[in-house]
Amino acid sequence: HEDTGLQLQALLEGQNYGAAAGDGAQCAAVSVPRNSPAMRDCLVVAVLCFGNLINFMDWFIVPGILLDIQKYFGLSDGKTGLLQTVFTLCYMLAAPIFGYLGDRYNRKIILAAGILFWSGVTLSSSFITESYYRIFVLSRGLVGIGTASYSTIAPTIIADLFEEGKRTTVLSIFYIFIPVGSGCGYMLAAGMAKSTGDWHWAFRVTPCMGGLALVLLLLLVPHRIQRRTARHRALSISGTRRGAEETPGVQRTAKTTWCQDVVSLAKNCSFVWSSLGLTAMAFVTGALGMWVPLFLYRAQLVQGIVPPCLQESCNSSNSLIFGGITIGTGIFGVIAGAEAARRLRKIYDKADPLICATSMFISALCLYTALMVAQTNILSTFIFIAFGELFLSVNWAVVTDILMYVVTPRRQSTAIALQILLSHLLGDAGSPYLIGAISNTLQARGTPSFQSSFRSMQSSFAICAFVGAFGGAFFLLTSLYIEGDRREAER
Fold it and tell me: Which CB contacts under 8 angstroms, 24+ apart, belong to 339-343?
């Protein structure tokens, strides 16, 4: 049975994994025993992807019903943006803690505890009344802490299960559920608010899905996951236990302090510049995810397409459309990015950062164009926003794969945690609040009107296009160092 499993694994690794759908088909089509390594790995990835879907659904419930929440609590643009900022701040501050724990303790237990925690807090927040806005803000921060445990540790499990050739494809499948979950969050929130007439019900669906994810995690994910490399398989075939090879890595991790890991990562130029590029991506996606439905609503008010929101439940059609755009562009963008990286990497070692740089520049141009045409043509605005999101999504799996091959395995959880901390601290932790605060300041300078509220949001949103261009420059700098840092990590 062991020989059969090794042969099957070698067969799968020798095949061409070009697209996400193809990888899933391989898992489903190969006839193997239920307890074979290949089938088990596919089940583990499926569970992790389902958890990632729910995480990002819960993340974007608030933007999906932003008009209703703003009206219910009587909030300005600045205080409204604070909801997402608090969530992201708690998320990023908790990430290094979970990165440290994930490199040293059982990752399955940490994942299970995180899912249980954020599910309970989300369900509880659905019963908060309009008099307790601060408690509602606090609940979003606590949800961010629970989410951080998952986003930090789950990619490292995938990195342990698959080698570089397949790892990009499997990571692309995992990261597809970032835009898919985000879009589903918009659609779930808008749909529940419309069907029930009460936006609170939007916070009562994802906790039930979180409970299902918790059960699947406990039943299907192994208690310990060992790294799969050609070296380990060679040791297994020659009769050497895999566990013997794992033990020195555990000992080295135990002797390496967190500060030493941070210093080592700070000297890794590819890690630093790609993390700054990811920070620019996070800034743009955070601002888009929070404010696009409200911006489109104000543009439609200026054009006279929709009436002002005076009823109990506001029109949520923009959230539904934007959610659908996010899902479609996210799936296509992540798959296209992974496929482009897989093909171009064979002929050019610097392909990954150059793909990221090009997509960031194009995305920035599309988003700026969308802002400029919003007052005159809503359809064109939707089209350019879709292209902007598409080219942003190209980078998700590619950036993570860059980290995986320029950072040594025993520091990967810490590296992901630090990348999360940096990208959110300087990225989407501040961008929702910053856009709202600038909008408030610009509105205060003029006479209150639909036109002034639209213009203020349009002007503050323009920052995103320039930040996106800076992100492209950071990825260009990454390309200068990536070959040397990769060789050092392999050594």
Answer: 339/18, 339/19, 340/394, 341/168, 341/397, 341/398, 341/401, 342/17, 342/18, 342/168, 342/169
CA distances from 27 to 32, 170, 356 (A): 10, 11, 29
244-272: pLDDT as tens digits: 333 344 444 445 677 888 888 888 899 99
Structural domains in the chain?
37-223 (1.20.1250.20), 260-490 (1.20.1250.20)
| Eight-state DSSP code of residue 428 | I
Reported confidence tier of residue 42, pLDDT bands at 50, 70, 90: confident
- Higher pLDDT among residues 432 and 235, named by residue: 432
Residue ranges in 60-201 assigned as alpha helix (H): 61-64, 66-73, 77-102, 107-125, 133-161, 164-196
Q: Give 306's pLDDT tier (boundaries 50, 70, 90).
A: confident
Provide CB contacts within 8 A for 165, sequence distance 6+: 13, 17
Number of other residues whose CB lies within 10 A of the CB of residue 85:
25
DSSP assignment string, 320-372: HHHHHHHHHHHHHHHHHHHHHHHHHTTT-TTHHHHHHHHHHHHHHHHHHHHHH
CA–CA gap between residue 340 and residue 486 (Å, rounded): 19
> Model-level pTM greater than 0.85?
no
Task: Supply the DSSP symbol for 201.
Answer: G
Cβ neighbours of 457 (radius 10 Å): 26
Q: Are 265 and 411 in contact (CB under 8 A)?
A: yes
